[in-house]
Amino acid sequence: MLEVAGMTTKYGDIAAVRDVSLTVGYGELVCLVGPNGAGKTTTLNTIVGLLRPFAGTIKFDGQEITRKEPDDLLRMGIALVPERRRIFADLSVLENLLVAGSILSRSKRQERVEEMLTLFPILREKSQTSAGYLSGGQAQQLAIARALMTDPRLLLMDEPSLGLAPVMVDFVFNLLETLRSPQRGMLIVEQNARRALQVADRGYILRTGEMVDQGQGQELLTRTDLFKSYLGE
Fold first, then answer.
1. I want to staple 70 with a disulfide (CB 3.0 to 4.6 A). Which of 7, 49, 180, 207 is the partner?
2. pLDDT, tens digit, for every residue of 134-146?
């Protein structure tokens, strides 16, 4: 579904990620883990078109998307749950969802809103509340629901458990299992490496902008050398 090959992304003259390659298959949940500053967010933002790669290619369903705009990628079926939610604080929960579904027809948009309010019952309860008044866990649910409004085939999440209480961390990781589908691929950036690898089919380890290891999630979990060398555990 997704194929990133030899991707380098720079901020000015500084390469934030260098020669990164990864794949996500249909039905796969793939995690990208690494310490702070490893380039994980840069990798996701480049895939969704928020940043332009200096080198390399990105393909989705066999079609090159390296230079496409974010709104074009959204219409193709790629959605991002950004780091720290980035919801519209001055809009209500319902308005956030409606904005996220703006590329849909009116009837389809209403249908997807109802599906999201069913999947996240707290959002139905808070539907008329300004998003800025939500708790951290509620805001994360809204951020995920917003990305799901277009029923994406490729879902990217950036640190979905960041700053959440333990009960909400459990909710997020259980939700990842619920969202699994043969028609959907998921790429998750997560600093909680052990928890991410427990649910992932495969994992990639990124450090100082370079891919240093990869493998099956369960296999990487057994690599104590990897956690000590690259993840600081």
1. 49
2. 998 899 999 999 9
